[in-house]
Specification:
The protein has about 170 residues and is mostly helical. About 70% of the residues lie in helices and about 0% in strands.
């Protein structure tokens, strides 16, 4: 029953248009997390809500907690935790949180994620999140980022078309 409530809180957080409501739902999901793996996931949802509210420093705290829970989940499983989707999400959120204060580090995280074969299935999502964040902050693309920036569409939409993603 707790798992359903955690999932519901995650969904409500992600769907909430108001950052404050999203944070409240995410914090409740974190509190209900019955296992380190679930805590890993819910801390990332909280980080996303905090970023939407403009709280990059608090988002970094949640991301660091997510990494701690990831390691605890691996210990509990007795093996290395392989969840490239959550790993890609963590990297994407961390880069977004660092973009204003440590732009070079944020760019390095994204560049590394986009060349990591283990994250191949998530490269498009990481790229789209990164470009969307740059657009929102009115920041230029780094020179190493390969996309046709002269099209009529927003860069994030160009990437969605390029990777045949529909949201």
């Amino acid at each position: 029953m707790i798992a359903l409530e955690v999932d519901a809180r995650i969904a409500l957080s992600l769907a909430s248009p108001k950052p404050r409501d999203a944070q409240r739902q995410a914090r409740q999901a974190v509190e209900l997390s019955p296992h380190p793996y679930v805590a890993y996931q819910t801390q990332l949802v909280l980080a996303e809500a905090l970023l939407r509210a403009g709280s990059a420093d608090q988002a970094l705290v949640a991301i660091n907690r997510a990494y701690v829970h990831s390691r605890a989940a691996a210990r509990a499983l007795g093996a290395e935790l392989h969840d490239p989707g959550l790993q890609a999400l963590a990297i994407s959120l961390e880069a977004q949180a660092l973009l204003d204060s440590h732009r070079d580090l944020a760019h390095g995280l994204i560049r590394s994620a986009l060349t990591d074969p283990a994250l191949q299935g998530f490269h498009a999502g990481v790229a789209i999140d990164f470009v969307t964040c740059l657009e929102r902050k009115a920041l230029a693309l780094p020179a190493w980022f390969q996309v046709d920036a002269h099209g009529l569409l927003r860069l994030a939409d160009q990437l969605r078309l390029q990777h045949k993603l529909v949201y």
